[in-house]
Specification:
By secondary structure, this protein is an alpha/beta fold. Helices cover 34% and strands 24% of the residues.
Length: 338
């Protein structure tokens, strides 16, 4: 069990790592103890920028640092299995960026390592920790819209991204689905659980990654989800949940919303807005706060981002990639579900 300040290690120094570190600096009970990059100069610059005591030019030294309570893995997702696995085997707790890994097999390996070493492990699905998203889920769970019939969500970036960009590089797990589509899929499964059937279609790049993907998920209850992601067209980031007695609309940025509107049959629309005290909607601090709460409580996974939920999302992403024909170098062909 962790006491007092939680001491963080940051593994990788890209944009998402910097955004996360900036939020950690503002948390009085968090401390950035060390940072690692395969480029020593990057680690040193990052450590100086965010006040970390130590900078390492390799991952192994960070994983071996016993002064660290938890490591935030912020590499491209093709390296998540290696980086998070290294830290878990060294006895570190881990918060690993989304998507958890390239495929469900790698996620299963990380979960097994965490349980073998009695370590905390969580996917950095910050949407699940967002207070307004949690409020939306509570309303749906309480029957505010009746039985859920459909879920819609989209996330697209306009680009264009050149072939050398990480979003188009198969060796880095490129494509719209894993980088952006993980959000619509996770949103649908937050509300409905793992689907019973999966269908999808995609536009593939010359490199063999998906430039945009459309998916339809369905459940034995009759519920369906229509989801879309793209790196060739900017979308509104909208979402809606339609039930037998009403609807919830998220007008933009559904994974970090400023507001949503509840429409219930026979009632005036109700708007729910983010609490200004929760900070800007783009903040990553909510997931950091949840990790620190869990560590202090001696928990090995978060009830907000449970490992089985992350495994279920990866199974769906694997099934979609099987449908659209996206494979990454050296990857075992995923087994389709549904």
């Amino acid at each position: 069990m962790v006491e007092q300040k939680v001491r963080w290690g940051i593994l990788a120094t890209g944009g998402i790592a910097a955004a996360f570190a900036a939020d950690l600096v503002d948390l009085p009970d968090a401390e950035i103890t060390a940072v690692a990059s395969r480029r020593p100069e990057s680690a040193e610059a990052f450590a100086e920028r965010f006040g970390a005591a130590r900078a390492y030019g390799d991952w192994e030294s960070l994983a071996a640092d016993a002064d660290i309570d938890v490591v935030y893995v912020a590499t491209p997702h093709a390296a998540h299995r290696a980086a998070a696995g290294l830290c878990l085997e060294a006895g570190r707790n881990v918060l690993c960026e989304k998507p958890f890994t390239l495929n469900v097999r790698e996620t299963e390996e990380l979960v097994a390592l965490a349980r073998e070493h009695d370590r905390f492990l969580m996917e950095a699905m910050w949407m699940y920790c967002n207070p307004l998203v949690r409020r939306l889920k509570a309303l749906v769970d309480d029957g505010a819209v009746g039985e859920v019939r459909t879920v819609q969500a989209d996330f697209g970036l306009a680009g264009p991204f050149p072939p050398a960009h990480r979003l188009r590089d198969p060796a880095l797990g490129g494509g719209a689905l894993l980088d952006l589509g993980v959000y619509p899929v996770s949103f649908a499964q937050l509300l409905l659980g793992e689907p019973d059937a999966v269908a999808g279609s995609a536009l593939l790049s010359p490199e063999g990654v998906d430039l945009q993907t459309g998916a339809v998920l369905s459940w034995e209850s009759g519920a369906m989800a229509a989801l879309h992601c793209s790196i060739v067209g900017g979308t509104g980031g909208t979402a809606s949940v339609t039930g037998s007695r009403g609807r919830i609309d998220v007008p933009s940025g559904f994974f970090h919303p400023e507001r949503f509107v509840l429409h219930r049959d026979g009632r005036d629309p109700e708007e729910f807005a983010a609490d200004p005290g929760d900070g800007p909607r783009s903040t990553l601090r909510h997931e950091a706060v949840e990790v620190m709460r869990a560590l202090r409580a001696g928990e090995e996974e978060s009830p907000l981002v449970p490992l089985e939920g992350s495994l279920a999302v990866m199974r769906t992403l694997d099934a979609l990639r099987e449908r659209i024909g996206v494979r990454y170098p050296g990857e075992v062909v995923p087994v389709a579900v549904g």
